[in-house]
Amino acid sequence: MYVILLGLPGAGKGTQAARLSAATALAHITTGELFRDNIREGTALGEKAKPFVEGGLLVPDEITIGMLLDRVKQPDASAGFMLDGFPRNLEQARALDEALSREGKQIDEALYIKVSTEELVRRLAGRWSCPQCGAVYHEQSRPPMKPGVCDNCGAALYQREDDRPEVVRTRLEVNQKNLQPLLDYYDGRGKLREVDGERDPETISKDLGRLIGIGC
Ligand code: AP5
Ligand code: MG
Ligand code: ZN
User: Fold this and answer.
1) Is this model's pTM higher than 0.90 or not?
2) pLDDT (tens digit per residue) in 3-18
3) Does any ligand 1 atom lie closer than 6 A to the CB of residue 134?
4) Of the ligands numbered here, which is closest to the C-alpha atom of 11?
């Protein structure tokens, strides 16, 4: 099964992808995390992506599309994947469809997690992330058991560079501009499903799981 999670920054794509991929054999692939890993490791790709990621802008398609298409060829994605943060524009959506169709595959579902801007700003301001396992926490709604420490792996949590308020504003603007054409693209192909993302994470996972035919 090939699933896409759509939603603005802070909508809960990472939170839900982690829950759903734990309940399935689907690989959780997040372009944002791939970029942050490359930046941390100082790779050539990371150097190119850094100013865009830290400034809240989209990394150019010529970097992003190749990186994602290489990642989905890895063995862990052979049984299917759940994409978190890709595609973010029509060029990326078309490139993905073309690559899949060359292998006789197609996207099964595009799941849109809808959340209001005020709630997104609140979520991003209180988020703490794990650099090692990618787990996400929130100061109020999902605090770690021990402040500043990841429950899963014990690593020290950090606040993302692009969660600073001025960068959050840019990220929201950039993503809002690109979202509607993407929703229309998948709706026109009969793949789009929308869920209300302003409920507790467990309820949202149940809804999403039902839409892709799994219990979680
Ligand atoms: P990326 O890392 O994907 O960032 P994003 O899209 O801005 O999304 P976030 O990770 O901020 O939010 P999320 O939806 O995953 O929410 P989360 O689950 O963490 O991309 C980063 C950057 O990389 C981009 O800006 C761009 O530069 C580049 N990039 C990536 N992909 C690209 C592409 N395809 N093309 C070009 N450039 C690309 O939740 C947020 C917070 O809310 C957490 O604290 C969480 O605990 C809390 N929370 C989650 N769900 C709930 C709930 N139901 N109720 C209450 N709180 C909740
Ligand atoms: Mg995320
Ligand atoms: Zn961790």
Assistant:
1) yes
2) 999 999 999 999 999 9
3) no
4) 1
